[in-house]
Design goal:
This protein has 329 residues and is of the alpha/beta class. It contains 13 helices and 12 strands.
Length: 329
C-alpha cells in the first residue's frame, strides 16, 4: 500500500474529533471545500467510507473509528510534543559557570536568596574549572577566580581575595609547644598546598623572608574547599582564602597562624562574559546582587581580621602571577 497522505489524515482527524467539516475548517484555517476534498482523497486511497451523515452531523463508520483511534493518539502526541517544546523555549533560564570552590563555599549557600527574588527564572549552575568558550557554549556568564584581564570579554571584579595561613586552634597549640618562633613552627608544620591558588606557599615564604630547609607538602589539593577542610580537621596549615572560609574563622574552627604576617590582599574574583550579555536584564540584576552581597561579605571579612590584629598587604596580580594559573580554583 502506498504511503498515506498526511494532510488528508490530519484533516480527517480534525473532522472526526470536532464532528463537522465547518469546525474542522475553522481550526485548520482552510475552507470547508478543502477539507471535504482531502476526505475524498483519503477515502479513495483506503477504498472505504470513513463517515456517514446523520442529522447534519458526520458519524464515523467502523473503519473510520478504527482509523480515528490511531490518528487521535498520534496527532495528540505530536501536539503535546510541540507544546512542550514551545514551553521549554519560552522558559526563562539563566546559566552560570563558576569556579568550584567559590561555587560550593560562597555561592551555594546564598543563591537561594536570588532565586526567591526571581521565581520565574530557572537557574543552572555549572561548577567546573573549565573556562567558558562563549562563542560555542550557552553560558550567560562566568564567575571566575584568577588574575583577570581576559581579552575580548567584559571583566568586572566583584570581590578581592584575602589570603593568610590558617589552621585549627588545636594544631596551633601543638606548634606553639614546639617553639614560640613562627619560623620554627612553620619548619615543623605540615603545609597544605592549594595548587590552584594564585598566591601559594613559595611566594608567601619569600615575601616574608622565611627559608625552610625543605619545602615539602604532605597534602596537595586542587580545590580550596578541600584544603580548608583539611586545615579545619587539624591536618596542617593551609594558605588559603578568608573569603571562602569566613564562617569557620568566625566560629573559631580556624584561626590565623600568626597575625604578625600581613594578610595578602588582591583582586581575584571576576564576573566574565561577552559585553553583549549585559543586555539581558537578568544578567545585570545578578551582577548587581552579586556585587552587593560580595561587598558586604568582604567588608565583614576585613572587619573580622582587623579585630584579630591583622594588617593587610596589597599585591599586584598582573606582575606576580601568570594569568592562567588561577583559572581553575
Amino acid at each position: 500500500m502506498r504511503d498515506i497522505n498526511l494532510k488528508a489524515t490530519e484533516y480527517f482527524e480534525a473532522v472526526a474529533r470536532l464532528g463537522t467539516v465547518t469546525k474542522a475548517a475553522e481550526e485548520l484555517k482552510v475552507s470547508p471545500s478543502a477539507v471535504s476534498q482531502q476526505l475524498k482523497i483519503l477515502e479513495t486511497q483506503l477504498g472505504v467510507r470513513l463517515f456517514r451523515r446523520e442529522k447534519r452531523r458526520l458519524v464515523l463508520t467502523l473503519d473510520g473509528d478504527r482509523l480515528f483511534q490511531t490518528t487521535s493518539q498520534s496527532f495528540g502526541a505530536l501536539r503535546n510534543a510541540c507544546s512542550a517544546i514551545g514551553r521549554q523555549r519560552d522558559v526563562r533560564s539563566l546559566t552560570i559557570r563558576v569556579s568550584p570552590s567559590f561555587g560550593v563555599r560562597w555561592l551555594g549557600p546564598r543563591i537561594a536568596g536570588f532565586a526567591a527574588a526571581h521565581p520565574e527564572w530557572n537557574i543552572r549552575i555549572d561548577a567546573t574549572p573549565d573556562f567558558t568558550a562563549f562563542e560555542t557554549e550557552a553560558i550567560d556568564f562566568d564567575l571566575r577566580y584568577g588574575a583577570g584581564g581576559w581579552s575580548g570579554l567584559a571583566v568586572e571584579r566583584f570581590m578581592s581575595d584575602l589570603v593568610l595561613p590558617m589552621c585549627s586552634p588545636e594544631y596551633l597549640d601543638k606548634l606553639r609547644g614546639v617553639s614560640d618562633e613562627p619560623s620554627a613552627q612553620l619548619a615543623s608544620a605540615r603545609l597544605i598546598d592549594s595548587v590552584k591558588m594564585l598566591y601559594r606557599w613559595d611566594l608567601w615564604l619569600a615575601a616574608n623572608d622565611i627559608k625552610l630547609p625543605d619545602l615539602v607538602y604532605p597534602f596537595r589539593y586542587d580545590r580550596s574547599s578541600m584544603s580548608i577542610e583539611m586545615a579545619k580537621q587539624g591536618g596542617g596549615i593551609a594558605l588559603d582564602s578568608v573569603s571562602l572560609c569566613l564562617p569557620e574563622l568566625e566560629r573559631g574552627e580556624l584561626v590565623p597562624f600568626c597575625v604578625d604576617f600581613a594578610v595578602v590582599d588582591f583582586p581575584a574574583y571576576w564576573f566574565v562574559c561577552p559585553p553583549r550579555h549585559f543586555n539581558r536584564r537578568i544578567v545585570s540584576r545578578f551582577f548587581d546582587w552579586l556585587t552587593e552581597a560580595c561587598g558586604a561579605h568582604e567588608a565583614r571579612a576585613r572587619s573580622f581580621l582587623k579585630e584579630k590584629g591583622c594588617r593587610f598587604r596589597q599585591v599586584d596580580t598582573a606582575h606576580l602571577f601568570d594569568e592562567a594559573a588561577g583559572d581553575a580554583d
